[in-house]
Design goal:
Alpha-D-Glucose-1,6-Bisphosphate, Chain A, domain 3, TATA-Binding Protein, 3 domains
């Protein structure tokens, strides 16, 4: 079957010269052929994501065409006058894939709204709602290395596509021949006929206005704030700098070698603001600029990482650190200003720090847990909107550096996060405090809630089987102790069951089904095991609590070691 697919592609896949060369190059490499053709890229709630190249298991114009034909069929099944918005980032072939999708949608009688240049993922979510579209697509692989690209689909609410809709798209995709079954038109012809239209600057300004409306400390003077910013060769450069200028941050130094779009990411092989290497250029620049804050946004500008001064050095704060700081800052400032709504609600993912539960309780704010993935946070905002309670939402966040401080979009947004972080740093600077000092104060008040994450990469077909085997083994033989502590509760999100290991009782989990296992100890320590939905990885999320930082660090290291051994690494 693999060789038959390969032969078919050699015959038919002739529209992109890069694919022709790659197919020719792999003809004597059975392993390369197998990896490229052993399966089709699956369309799930996260859309598509994979290595760029030739094959059914790769991101190319043919797999993008199939996905677009499936999405077009879904939209046409729910409306006779469909509209779809499209955005793309700086990744290799992102613009080509965006135009490919636009051509397919137009051929299927759907009007297309396309950004003229690369734009952040949250601006696609905004465009879907503002233009009353039935769906949206953003071509991005977020913070993956340069060999990856992806195709994220959105529903009319601006959230990533739901499970039911994604299954309908997949059903159509599976039945479509990538060479004969995908409808398409010439892009320039469709543009001239008005079937494809460009999104104009007016909508971009409306988005920035919506971000500005979410300030929580507008009285704060930001003119003295010194910021180094890097878009990591991605789409954040213009919108982040625009919003910082609007709020009065005039002293911004952009990392010159990372300012312009470049899908090869020459200075950041892993363009992920979660890791220190992505900050290396900014940290070097900090030696001369001496900023109050370093900001880094990922290529599609939905995540932001920061570094702040600690003595003579600069310390990177984790997504959990920043989430806790922002939640406390927003609740404190809005309480002081009298703008906190009745029954305020914040939303976090199950793998995000429990420190936020203590912070929320202090301000009588409800804190809701959802599955990993920001679309689940977006769905909660949509539910509030349907109930006429949209104003209750004050903050949504996840440990993987995703934050949202308003309801104008339904996805994480590094533009508003950058604005709120700058406000927060300037506010505390005026009080003579650094973020390190503020975070220490939160720990002393609520306990040292420390978190860590470990990822293990398992590439290819064998890797997928390996990950599946790990999860199967854990379900068959769950651990009774971790790091010398008794496991008191096990949550199995695939079986939708929470098991009380002490009383031997079960209760249902009402969240959607997901392949996640969570283990909790009496001290509040935890270990969560989750295969990635977008990368060939299995992840451990580790949490520990202590009265002192040293106690929490010791617990964290012990649980991480236990988790690693559980997976067989």
């Amino acid at each position: 079957m693999v060789n038959e697919k390969y032969a078919l592609w050699c015959e038919k896949a002739v529209q992109d010269p890069d694919l022709v060369k790659e197919l020719e190059a792999m003809k004597n490499d059975p392993d390369a052929i197998s990896d490229a053709f052993y399966k089709d890229l699956e369309f799930g709630t996260g859309g598509l994501r994979g290595v760029i190249g030739a094959g059914t298991n790769r991101m190319n114009i043919y797999t993008v065409g199939k996905a677009s034909q499936g999405l077009a069929a879904y939209v046409n099944s729910v409306t006779a006058d469909g509209k779809i918005a499209i955005a793309y980032d700086s990744r290799i072939k992102s613009d080509l894939f965006a135009k490919t999708a636009a051509s397919v949608f137009a051929a299927n009688g759907i009007r297309v709204y396309l950004y003229r240049e690369l734009m952040p993922t949250p601006m696609l979510s905004y465009a879907v709602r503002a233009l009353h579209c039935d769906a949206g697509v953003v071509v991005t692989a977020s913070h993956n290395p340069s060999k990856y690209n992806g195709y994220k689909a959105y529903g009319p609410d601006g959230c990533q596509l739901g499970l039911e809709a994604a299954e309908k798209v997949l059903d159509v995709m599976n039945a479509v021949d990538p060479f004969e079954g995908v409808k398409t038109v010439d892009f320039q012809t469709a543009l001239a006929q008005g079937d494809i239209v460009y999104i104009e600057q007016e909508l971009i300004e409306q988005y920035l206005d919506a971000v500005m409306a979410c300030r929580v400390a507008p009285e704060t003077d930001l003119s003295a704030l010194r910021v180094i910013y890097t878009p990591l060769h991605g789409s954040g450069n213009k919108p982040v700098r625009s919003i910082l200028k609007r709020i009065g941050v005039t002293n911004v130094t952009v990392v010159p070698e990372q300012e312009l779009p470049d899908g090869n990411f020459p200075t950041a092989p892993y363009p992920n603001p979660e890791i220190r290497q992505a900050f290396s250029c900014a940290l070097s620049l900090a030696n001369t600029v001496k900023p109050d804050l370093l900001l880094a946004t990922d290529p599609d500008c939905d995540r932001v990482g920061i570094a702040v001064p600690e003595g003579e050095e600069y310390t990177l704060l984790s997504g959990n650190d920043v989430g806790a700081l922002l939640l406390d800052f927003i609740l404190a400032r809005r309480t002081a200003a009298g703008t906190l709504p009745k029954k305020p609600l914040a939303v976090k993912t199950i793998v995000t720090t429990e420190l936020c539960r203590k912070i929320a309780a202090k301000y009588h704010c409800e804190l809701l847990d959802v599955l990993t993935g920001f679309k689940f946070i977006g769905e909660q905002i949509t539910a509030l909107e349907a109930a006429g309670e949209e104003n209750r939402f004050i903050f949504g966040f996840e440990e993987s550096y995703g934050y949202l401080g308003g309801s104008y979009v339904r996805d994480k947004d590094a533009v508003i996060a950058s604005m709120l972080i700058c406000e927060m740093v300037a506010y505390y600077k005026a009080q003579g405090k650094t973020l390190i000092e503020v975070l220490e104060g939160l720990y002393q008040e609520h306990g040292y809630y420390l978190c860590a994450q470990k990822s293990f990469t398992c590439e290819g077909e064998s890797g997928m089987k390996q990950i599946a085997g790990m999860m199967e083994s854990l379900r068959a033989t769950p651990p009774k102790t971790l790091n010398g502590e008794t496991v008191v509760r096990i949550d199995d999100y695939e079986k939708s069951v929470s098991f009380d290991a002490v009383n031997r009782t079960e209760k249902p989990i009402t969240l959607p089904v997901s392949n996640v296992l969570a283990y909790y100890m009496e001290s509040g320590a935890s270990l969560i095991v989750r295969p990635s939905g977008t990368e060939p990885k299995i992840k451990l999320y580790i949490g520990a609590v202590g009265k002192t930082k040293a106690d929490a660090e010791e617990g964290l290291a012990g649980i991480a070691d236990c988790g690693t051994k559980l997976l067989g690494f």
